[in-house]
Amino acid sequence: MSILSIKPISLADWQLVKVSGTDNHKYLQGQVTIDIDNLTEQTALFAAHCDPQGKMWSNLLLFQRGQDIYYIVRKSVVEKQMAALKKYAVFSKVNIEPVTDLNIVGLDSQAIPSEILAKFTDNNCFTENNVTYIKLTSPHVRVIKITPEAIDDDLEPCSRWLQLELEAGYAIIDAENTESLLPQACNLQYLNAISFDKGCYCGQEMVARAQYRGANKRGLYLLAGKSAVLPVIGGTIEYQIDGNWRESGQVLAALKLNQDNEIYVQVVLANGIDFNTPFRVKGEIDSALSFH
């Protein structure tokens, strides 16, 4: 359902955060789910930041510029997430702050200069002339640009990037769903966003238990269909079984795609639901959704 964009795309609903200081690698190693030793200026990594119970404050995209580590996070959760990340920082030489001297923008299709694409070989990240580029490959090749230059006002709306994130299967953790989901419930294991070989980090025991003892029974899914009303973020949807409608799931994101009331709904559901199961927006009897 994607329509390729020829203009840059606004990322105003996302926030850039910098983690600097001589202990930044060591500190983050004890806080996030991936092995920070694998983070380089040529390798950006997906990760999660969890509470002690293994529930995510947020999911992150981390990258490195020089000695500093940065991550991209949803703006609605950044204040709470940063406060949790700073909790033990007093014991380390590390500074965690929102970035104000760099801007982020999404590039899709013809908005990606060919000379930039050509510089991605075995790497998914590079910095040139103080501008960092991160390549994402799903649902098709697109690029995040991080630059000190001002961003042009002539941008595609944030909803366009959200649509691509939903189609890529990247979980959207906004304020309504923070501290409520294990990383595996959002399929982060399939994005290599969880290391099961590194040492301890906040929430590690519960995340490992979900992986090896089957404690997690849920996964991330994308539903598509029609509805005049979007579901409530953090709420439930309804599915039909034996002729009856029952509530289920946890809605992470919902997006109206066009004026024909076609919508996407990103939802965490119990694994094993039949692929042909009908869904609908809670209380909206005229809506109809199915697995995308």
From TrEMBL:
InterPro entries per the UniProt record, alphabetical: GcvT/YgfZ_C, YgfZ/GCV_T_CS, YgfZ/GcvT, YgfZ_barrel
Which residues does the UniProt record annotate as the domain tRNA-modifying protein YgfZ-like beta-barrel? 216-283
One matching Pfam family: YgfZ_barrel
What GO terms in the biological process aspect are recorded for it? iron-sulfur cluster assembly
Q: Which domain of life is it from?
A: Bacteria
Q: What is this protein called?
A: tRNA-modifying protein YgfZ
Organism, per UniProt?
A: Gilliamella apicola
